[in-house]
Specification:
This protein is an alpha/beta fold and 653 residues long. It has 16 helices and 21 strands. The chain has helices at 46-56, 73-81, 101-107, 116-128, 159-183, 279-289, 304-313, 326-332, 341-367, 374-384, 388-397, 415-510, 533-542, 561-568, 583-591, 615-652, and strands at residues 12-19, 28-34, 39-45, 60-63, 88-91, 133-148, 188-195, 198-206, 218-220, 223-239, 246-252, 257-262, 268-274, 291-296, 316-318, 522-530, 550-555, 574-577, 595-598, 604-607, 610-614. Strands 1, 2, 3, 4, 5, 6, 7, 8, 9 and 10 form a 10-stranded mixed sheet that branches. The protein has a 6-stranded mixed sheet with strand order 19-18-17-16-21-20, with helices on both faces. Helix 9 crosses helix 10 (374-384). The longest helix is centred in the last third of the chain and has 96 residues, at 415-510. It is elongated.
Length: 653
């Protein structure tokens, strides 16, 4: 039975140098694209090869020598860093000590020729059969480094503030990345360097591959974010195919399907439980982890689902005489780890099946010669019910070399010649048996091809679902970001609405839309806390002071000439003063002809930040101001006349 692979429905690129040298400027490559059915051949430049790999994202990039793609180890690491996340570089000829491609191809029955395009095809076909080693330079960890995006400078009066801002932004970005990693459920370690105002840098070591990290590299303003996979100390070679042991399989069917694998020594090798995978996925998992000899259930009769697994593997079946009690299953699996009852029941089925065959396994093991594979014998004895002696004879007989043909004379055969004749006949019988086994093998391989076709469709659908899940995750992150922006805009809108409401109230008062103002008896008044520059500017910013407004100072003390000039620039109708103010401020108001008077003469009714007063009272203040202006002008004229007379008398004397 041929080894089951995971690459039969994968997209495989096989490459070989067509001309030039990787150390030169322009090597060209023979490229073969193989998807398990169709083959496409081409000759491409190095740049086009990289572009095709980036666009097509093949599962495997196969070659007979990894240094045909890179001149040295550093360039190889750079090449591996540029590959898509799902693409593996495979050296089909071995690990550190590769074999000739011709020898590997012959061993696996793959067509081989010397032209570069045929070597590329051989590499693609071998990789598709899981022959070779994945070339790996990176671990499954990723390093995220957040650092300063610009220098903090050499100093100056604003250097401290500038440095504090940069370090603060680095710290903010580091916290945002930590939050995203927490939301994605990723394990990580954070090593930060605290500096004045925040962090000078922060390094995250995340237990995930780059494509699973919800952060991207960027450089903007004060900060820089760099993401790289963690490099290994050297180049590691990981075999594509793993040796699969003969196993006893326990199955617990249901909404949650569980499978457990036990070897011929009674050790639990692996266990699986799943609610989402279908039968084909479970079959694939079992095939990847072992070669089933026996399939067991924990109840009797054997459920149809379990029996379908048994028929799939053409394996023997085992079921208990009666349903296994829960306490016995718990006792038998007490030393094994499991996550749920389904895994426990599957392990119990496999372990009780092992217990039932333990004596048989021990006796057969004692009779197996050292040169014969123990698992092959046990598989046929336990799985097919064959006699151990017949199996051993069969396996040892097939290893006997075929003697050379000998011509005989017409005479009586010697004992040695008779022995040769008997051996030849035995070889003939064995050859016939081999033919039968090969025919059976072809049937099994045809059946496997059907399963592989089903698995191919299932894998293709799973890849599509995985892409959709990744896209959904990206959209969810984007949606979350937009929701945060929307919340911020809503808060800003609420603030603007509040300010607008206050301005509308003021507008209503200014335009006589207030109930009391409609009669013409009231006028809007704009209160100011103090007769100071800061208070006036604050009121102008919040409500505005327009020409013709009535302005009320709750505290008129402290005003100077400059403050009065600032107020006069807004050309108010009347200024109401509470308390005394300076003569300098009064002089400016007289000079600029701004009416003012004591607030005590006017009854002011305040509504939150706004206020209203009687129109009659305001007009009275204006009238009083006009009288004071006339009196002041008269006093000034009289003083001027007295001064002229005094100067004239002085001149006559």
């Amino acid at each position: 039975m041929s080894t089951r692979t995971r690459a039969l429905d994968a997209l495989v690129f096989g490459v070989d140098v067509q001309s030039g040298d990787v150390r030169g400027n322009a090597p060209s490559y023979a490229l073969v694209v193989y998807d398990g059915e169709e083959i496409e051949r081409d000759v491409v430049s190095r740049r086009k090869l990289r572009r095709l790999v980036a666009d097509e994202e093949p599962d495997l990039l196969a070659t007979d020598n990894m240094y045909e793609l890179a001149a040295d180890k550093d360039q190889l690491v750079h090449f591996l860093r540029g590959l898509p996340a799902e693409t593996k570089l495979v050296q089909v000829t071995g690990d550190e000590r590769p074999e000739p491609l011709s020898r590997v191809a012959k061993r696996h029955g793959v067509p081989y020729g010397k032209p570069a395009i045929e070597e590329a095809e051989a590499a693609a076909r071998l990789a598709a059969r899981n022959v070779g080693y994945e070339v790996s330079a990176f671990t499954n960890e990723t390093e995220i480094k957040v650092s300063r995006g610009r220098s903090t400078g050499k100093g100056g009066w604003s250097s401290d503030r500038y440095t504090r801002r940069i370090h603060g932004n680095v710290k903010t970005d580091a916290r945002e990345i930590a939050s995203k990693l927490d939301d994605a459920g990723l394990d990580y370690e954070m090593d930060e360097t605290e500096k004045y105002g925040g962090f000078s840098n922060a390094v995250f070591t995340v237990q995930a591959r780059m494509e699973d990290i919800p952060v991207s590299s960027r450089r903007s303003g004060d900060t820089r974010v760099e993401i790289e996979p963690v490099r290994r100390d050297g180049i590691e070679f990981v075999p594509l195919a793993r040796r699969r042991d003969r196993v006893l399989v326990g199955i617990d069917p249901g909404t949650t399907t569980a499978a457990a694998l036990v070897d011929f020594d009674g050790r639990v090798l692996d266990v699986l439980s799943t609610r989402t995978a279908d039968t084909a996925d479970v079959v694939e998992w079992i095939i990847e982890h072992g070669r089933p000899v026996l399939v067991a259930a924990d109840v009797t009769p054997m459920p149809e689902t379990v029996d379908s697994f048994r028929r799939t593997f053409d394996a023997a079946g085992w079921e208990p005489d009666a349903d296994l009690p829960v306490d016995e299953k718990q006792h038998r699996t007490r030393e094994e780890g499991y996550e749920n009852d389904h895994e426990r029941d599957a392990m119990a089925a496999a372990l009780f099946a092992y217990d039932a065959h333990e004596d048989q396994i021990r006796r057969v093991t004692e009779q197996i010669p050292p040169q014969v594979d123990r698992e092959d014998v046990l598989a046929r004895v336990v799985g097919n019910g064959e006699h151990v002696d017949a199996v051993v004879d069969d396996l040892t007989a097939t290893e006997e070399p075929q003697p050379e043909e000998t011509e005989h004379e017409a005479r009586e055969l010697t004992d040695e010649e008779k022995r040769i004749r008997d051996l030849e006949r035995q070889v003939e019988r064995l050859s016939d048996h081999v033919d039968e086994l090969e025919a059976e093998l072809e049937e099994k391989e045809a059946e496997i091809e059907e399963y592989e076709s089903e698995l191919s469709d299932a894998r293709r659908e799973e890849r599509e679902r995985a892409r959709e899940r990744r896209e959904v995750t990206k959209l969810e992150w984007e949606n979350s970001r937009l929701e945060d922006e929307l919340d911020a805009e809503r808060e800003r809108a609420d603030e603007l609405e509040s300010k607008l409401a206050r301005l509308k109230d003021l507008w209503k008062l200014d335009h006589s839309n207030f109930a009391d103002v409609n009669s013409g008896d009231l006028v809007a008044v704009k209160p100011v806390e103090q007769f100071t520059r800061d208070a006036i500017e604050s009121t102008v910013e919040e409500y505005g002071i327009a020409a013709g407004d009535v302005v009320y100072f709750r505290d008129a003390s402290g005003a100077g000439r400059a403050t009065a000039e600032l107020l006069a620039d807004h050309d108010p109708r009347v200024v109401l003063l509470s308390g005394s103010t300076s003569d300098a401020a009064r002089d400016v108001l007289y000079e600029e002809d701004v009416a003012f008077g004591p607030a005590d003469d006017v009854r002011i009714r305040e509504i939150d930040e706004l206020a209203i007063a009687s129109e009659d009272a305001v007009e009275a203040v204006e009238a009083d101001y006009r009288e004071r202006v006339e009196e002041r002008e008269q006093e000034q004229n009289e003083a001027m006349v007295d001064q002229i007379i005094s100067e004239h008398r002085a001149d006559r004397e």
